[in-house]
Every structure is written in structure tokens, then in C-alpha cells.
């Protein structure tokens, strides 16, 4: 469906995208993940034929974007970072204009506009001027614009930026629905979003692809160890003594407890089996009641930070801070 | 192309700009028409028309400043250039729209000589030649304005540069007449022009080697010419600037001369600047 091969974009000496290759199959949702300035937008601009590539090819539906731009662009609906809307048009006029420049079938045009408005839930603002709409509505108008003409490929650059949590959930559902008939590429810096929506995640950093896999498999890629977060009432020595005796427990990581008289610990196992039961009986035998138990797998945030910051190890402090912020981010959503 | 054309026409006539342009133009022309033709009883409509050539200084920037600059600023150019339309069609659609608005006022202008026939014998072919020349002159200016608008994201910047360019070409005759005609001055003027060219090249390509190279070659060639063959510069300045004196050729039309070379001059100016606009946009996206 979409074949990107050895894509390179150089601005003078600066390499924005460095030999990026990937393919997306029909009906898939591919998520682009990367820190700011990783080359996500540049890559999307090249796939849609907005800017040229220094090297490499992009083939959409069998059409090379750079050799047969008109055919290739016909298969693409694109929502750039800023929704490309004309403030002085009403929503309906705007969508009608988009349908015209996309050269859709005249007979189906009205139906398509109506359908796009329905899907993006902007029917109630159809006759309003775009400049009077809120950021969230403008974003949805941009999304409606991208799906007009039912292009095979829909490319969305940070589609949920500026939306409230309710709208974000709506847009995610819409994207999932779109994937039934279209191939979707979306970029995001909100990690939970990518893991919630995408079939495949592609992490890029400094223009290079770092990792590509399904969200579930990504964590196993990195030799991730499963941990068990515990909040236990009792003294640290007693808790440690009890847990250490459980077969399969390897490392124990203590954190500052939130409540007085409790212990906050993360227990890692050696992978031989489930340690939850053992930990429970050991602690109950030591008369240290478990207040909270949570098993944790490496989250996408951790993976993301690990792979994008691998080469700047000295910045560990910054990394920890970032983790907190990202988690808050994810929590807010 | 039709979609772009319709959108531009819509934006001229849903905003105040289209009406303001037409009203301003027709009011000024009306005043000149009344004063020259009605009150003074001068039967030559071309005379009234040539009196208002200077309105282009204001009206051309007003019409062309937002054509591409606004798309660049709003990022709606991403919508246009990722649509299946080619750059050529997009730019042609825009240019034809601005020409149409201008064409409407020129059509209205065509009635003015007819009004004069009420009062006596009027040489109509003479008057309509002048109107044709006026339209061609305006069309060439609009193409230049379109080009400037495509170079920037700022409407104000586009307007100011277009204003200056139109003003300079309007005043070119006067400027050339006060320049000394000796060879030394000519040499200096051409050297300065090469320097300006170097700066423009650098701004467009951001390539120091190429722009400096071209500049050096140009300056050396000019210096050698001046030292070896100074008579080359005889009358070269006025000949050179005549080419840029867009208005000069318009004077032929007002004298009732339908000179094919002048028509071709204007049409090629239009084609050249529309072509340059397309190339500049492609260049920016493809570099």
C-alpha cells in the first residue's frame, strides 16, 4: 500500500530524515512516534508530496509520489500539523472547495461532504465561518477535509493536538473506524495515544528509525523485566526479609513511601514463574499486610525514552524528570 | 483549476477587497474622465486613461498581495500542493481570477468612450487601443505582484515590495533621464546591478559559492569591457532601462498605435512572471 524506501531529506548539512524505510499494508494504522524534531512532519510532508526527498522513493498504491504526483496524491488525504482551513469560508463551502480540488465525482460530492461532516461530527457547525470555530472544531474540519473523496491512504500529523479529552477519545474512535476502509498513518508525541490506536508503532529519532513493531511486542524487544509494585505496611527490614525468601525474586527496588509506616517496593522476578502468590503468603506470614499490589510491564513511555535517549546516557536525571512529565501527560488524557 | 479560480473570485467578492478595488479604480477614472473629457471637452479618452496609470501603484499590491502570501501564512498551501492539482493549474487559476476582476473594471471602462459619442465625433478604435494597452499593462503588473506574493508569507511585505516595484517602473523614464550618460557612470550602474543580482541570488538559493561566483564573473567582465572597449557602454544605460520601463510601451497605445511588439512585450511579461512564480514555488518545495 505505502512503500517508503531509503527516504533521505537534507537541509544543507542538517539531515532531517536519514534513510527511512518502511511499508504499511492496507487497513493498517501506523503510528509515528518520536521526540520533537525527530523528522515526523518532514517524513509526512514527503509522503504526501508536499516537499521533495533528497533521496529515496515513496510509492503509494503503485504510484511513485515524485514521478506520478497527480495519481499518487489522488490516493492521499492529509491533515497537516495546522489544519489547512480558510477562515473566511463556512465549513460547508470549505469542504465543497476541497472536494473540487480533489476532483471527486460531481454526483457523489454532496453525499461525500455530508458523510465527512457526519464522521467528523461537525454537522452542527456546517454553516458557520471557520474563523469563528474553536481549535477543536477546526481540527475536526481538517480531519473531515482529509477523508473527503475516500482516499485509500489517510495521513494525520498529530491529529489530537489541542482537543479536549472527550474529543480525543472521539477522534481515536474515528481513526479506528477509518482504518476499516483506509490505511492510516498518524504521528503523535502522546505515547498512550499511539499504543491505543495503532497496529504498528514506528519510533524515529533524529531522522532515523529506531524501532518498528506492534505496541504489544515492543516491550519484549528490549529485554524488559516484569515488576510487581507493592505497598506494604510494616518495617523495611521485615518486608525485605520476607520477600527475599520467595523463590524467583531477584531484585528489590525501594522507593520513598507515600504513607508513614509503609514500605514501597518493586519486586522483579527471574522469569521462572508467577511470584504474586509467593509474595502474598510470605508477607502475610510476616504479618505485613499488602495494601496495594500492581504488576507492571514496561510502558511505551519507558520504551520510547529508552530507545530515543540511549545515546545520551549522562542525561539520566533529565530522563527521570521526563518520565514523570510523560506519565502526567498520559494521566491527564 | 476552475475550483481555484472560483475560490479566488469568491474571496475577492466576499471580502471588501474586490469591491474596494473596483470602486477606487472607477472613481479615479470617473474623475479624470469628467475633468479631462467632459469639463475640458477633450475628445481623447486615452488621455484620461494615461492620467491614471499611477493608480496601479496602489491597486496592484492591493489585488495581488494576498494571492500566495496568505496561503503560505495559513499553511493552506499544504492543502493545495498535496491535492491532485499541479502547481501550474493552481497558479494559473489564481492569476486568471485576478485578471478577471481587473477585466470587469476594464469592461466597464469600455463604456466611457461610448458616453463621449453623445457629444460629438470620437475616434473609437483609438480609444479602445488605449484601453487594450491599459489592460495589458495592468495584467503585466498583476503577474509581477503574483510573483512577489509567492515569495513571502507576509501580505504586508508582499504589498510593500510590489508597491516599490510598480512605482519604480512607473518612474523609470524620469529616473533614466537624470542619469549621466558617460561610460564611467554606466559601468558603475551595471556593477551595482550585478551586486544586487548577487544578493537576490543568494537570498533565493542560499548558496554562497554560486552567487559569489556569478558576482565575480560579472564584475570582472564589466571591468574588462570598460577598460578594453569603453564604447560598449555608449547609451547602454538608457537602452537597458528602457526594457524595464513597462510604462514606456504603454505610451504607444495611448497614441493609438497598436504595435505588435508592444503587445508581445506585455504578454511575455505576463507569461514570464507566471512561469517564474510556478518555478519559484516548485524550487522551494523541491530543494
How would you sum up this structure, described in words?
- The complex is a heterodimer of chains A (333) and B (287).
- Chain A has helices at residues 40-47, 69-74, 91-101, 106-120, 135-147, 165-178, 191-197, 215-221, 236-244, 276-285, 300-308, 316-332; strands spanning 2-11, 14-24, 29-33, 55-60, 63-64, 76-79, 153-157, 183-188, 200-205, 208-213, 227-233, 249-255, 262-269, 290-296.
- Chain A has 333 residues and is of the alpha/beta class.
- Chain A has 3 domains: 2-220, 3-Layer(aba) Sandwich (Rossmann fold), CATH 3.40.50.300; 227-296, 2-Layer Sandwich (Alpha-Beta Plaits); 299-332, no CATH class.
- In chain A, the strands form 3 sheets. Chain A has a 6-stranded mixed sheet with strand order 6-7-8-3-9-10, sandwiched between helices.
- In chain A, α3 packs across α4.
- The longest helix of chain A is centred in the C-terminal third of the chain and has 17 residues, at 316-332.
- Residues 313-333 of chain A have low confidence and may be disordered.
- Chain B has 15 helices and no strands.
- In chain B, α7 packs antiparallel against α9 and α9 packs antiparallel against α14 (246-254).
- The mean pLDDT of chain B is 88.
- The longest helix of chain B has 27 residues, at 124-150.
- Chain B folds into 2 domains: 2-177 and 244-285, no CATH class; 182-234.
- Chain B is flat.
- Chain B has 287 residues and is mainly α.
- Chain B has helices at residues 2-14, 17-39, 45-51, 56-64, 66-74, 77-81, 87-109, 111-117, 124-150, 155-178, 183-205, 208-228, 236-244, 246-254, 260-285.
- At the A-B interface, α2 and α3 of A face α1 and α6 of B.
Amino acid at each position: 500500500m505505502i512503500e517508503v524506501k531509503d527516504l533521505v531529506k537534507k537541509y544543507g548539512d542538517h539531515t532531517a530524515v536519514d534513510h527511512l524505510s518502511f511499508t504499511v499494508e492496507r487497513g493498517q494504522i501506523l503510528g509515528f512516534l518520536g521526540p520533537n524534531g525527530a523528522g515526523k512532519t518532514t517524513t509526512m510532508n514527503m509522503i504526501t508530496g508536499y516537499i521533495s526527498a533528497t533521496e529515496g522513493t515513496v510509492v503509494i498504491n503503485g504510484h511513485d509520489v515524485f514521478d506520478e504526483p497527480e495519481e499518487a496524491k489522488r490516493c492521499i488525504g492529509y491533515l497537516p500539523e495546522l489544519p489547512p482551513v480558510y477562515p473566511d469560508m463556512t465549513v460547508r463551502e470549505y469542504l465543497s472547495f476541497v472536494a473540487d480540488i480533489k476532483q471527486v465525482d460531481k454526483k457523489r460530492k454532496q453525499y461525500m461532504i455530508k458523510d465527512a461532516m457526519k464522521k467528523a461530527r461537525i454537522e452542527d457547525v456546517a454553516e458557520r465561518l471557520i474563523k469563528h470555530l474553536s481549535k477543536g472544531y477546526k481540527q475536526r474540519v481538517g480531519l473531515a477535509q482529509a477523508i473527503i473523496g475516500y482516499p485509500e491512504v489517510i495521513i494525520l500529523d498529530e491529529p489530537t493536538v489541542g482537543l479536549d479529552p472527550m474529543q480525543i477519545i472521539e477522534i481515536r474512535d474515528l481513526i479506528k473506524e477509518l482504518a476499516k476502509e483506509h490505511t492510516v498513518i498518524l504521528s503523535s508525541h502522546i505515547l498512550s495515544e499511539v499504543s491505543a490506536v495503532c497496529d504498528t508503532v514506528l519510533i524515529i529519532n533524529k531522522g532515523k528509525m529506531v524501532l518498528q513493531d506492534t505496541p504489544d511486542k515492543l516491550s519484549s524487544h528490549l529485554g524488559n523485566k516484569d515488576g510487581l509494585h507493592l505497598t506494604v505496611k510494616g518495617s523495611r527490614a521485615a518486608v525485605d526479609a520476607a520477600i527475599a525468601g520467595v523463590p524467583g525474586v531477584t531484585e528489590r527496588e525501594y522507593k520513598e513511601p507515600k504513607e508513614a509506616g509503609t514500605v514501597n517496593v518493586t519486586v522483579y522476578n527471574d522469569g521462572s514463574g508467577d511470584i504474586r502468590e509467593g509474595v502474598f503468603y510470605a508477607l502475610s506470614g510476616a504479618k505485613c499486610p499488602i495494601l496495594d499490589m500492581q504488576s507492571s510491564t514496561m510502558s511505551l513511555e519507558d520504551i520510547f525514552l529508552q530507545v530515543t535517549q540511549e545515546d545520551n546516557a549522562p542525561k539520566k536525571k533529565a530522563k527521570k524528570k521526563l518520565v514523570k512529565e510523560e506519565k502526567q501527560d498520559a494521566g491527564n488524557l | 483549476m476552475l475550483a481555484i479560480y472560483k475560490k479566488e473570485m469568491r474571496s475577492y467578492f466576499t471580502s471588501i477587497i474586490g469591491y474596494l478595488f473596483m470602486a477606487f479604480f472607477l472613481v479615479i477614472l470617473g474623475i479624470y474622465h469628467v475633468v479631462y473629457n467632459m469639463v475640458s471637452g477633450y475628445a481623447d479618452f486615452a488621455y484620461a486613461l494615461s492620467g491614471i496609470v499611477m493608480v496601479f501603484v496602489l491597486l496592484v499590491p492591493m489585488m495581488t498581495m494576498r494571492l500566495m502570501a496568505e496561503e503560505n501564512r495559513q499553511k493552506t498551501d499544504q492543502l493545495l500542493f498535496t491535492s491532485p492539482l499541479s502547481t501550474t493549474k493552481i497558479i494559473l487559476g489564481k492569476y486568471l481570477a485576478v485578471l478577471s476582476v481587473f477585466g470587469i473594471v476594464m469592461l466597464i471602462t469600455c463604456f466611457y468612450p461610448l458616453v463621449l459619442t453623445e457629444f460629438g465625433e470620437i475616434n473609437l478604435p483609438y480609444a479602445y487601443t488605449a484601453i487594450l494597452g491599459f489592460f495589458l499593462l495592468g495584467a503585466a503588473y498583476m503577474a509581477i505582484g503574483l510573483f512577489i506574493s509567492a515569495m513571502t508569507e507576509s501580505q504586508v511585505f508582499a504589498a510593500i515590495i510590489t508597491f516599490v516595484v510598480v512605482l519604480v517602473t512607473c518612474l523609470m523614464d524620469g529616473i533614466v533621464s537624470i542619469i549621466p550618460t558617460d561610460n564611467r557612470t554606466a559601468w558603475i550602474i551595471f556593477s551595482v546591478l550585478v551586486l544586487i543580482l548577487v544578493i537576490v541570488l543568494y537570498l533565493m538559493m542560499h548558496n554562497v559559492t554560486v552567487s559569489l561566483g556569478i558576482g565575480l564573473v560579472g564584475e570582472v567582465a564589466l571591468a574588462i569591457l570598460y577598460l578594453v572597449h569603453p564604447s560598449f557602454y555608449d547609451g547602454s544605460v538608457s537602452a537597458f532601462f528602457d526594457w524595464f520601463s513597462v510604462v514606456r510601451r504603454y505610451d504607444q497605445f495611448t497614441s493609438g498605435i497598436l504595435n505588435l511588439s508592444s503587445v508581445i512585450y506585455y504578454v511575455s511579461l505576463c507569461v514570464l512572471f507566471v512561469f517564474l512564480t510556478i518555478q519559484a514555488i516548485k524550487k522551494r518545495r523541491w530543494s
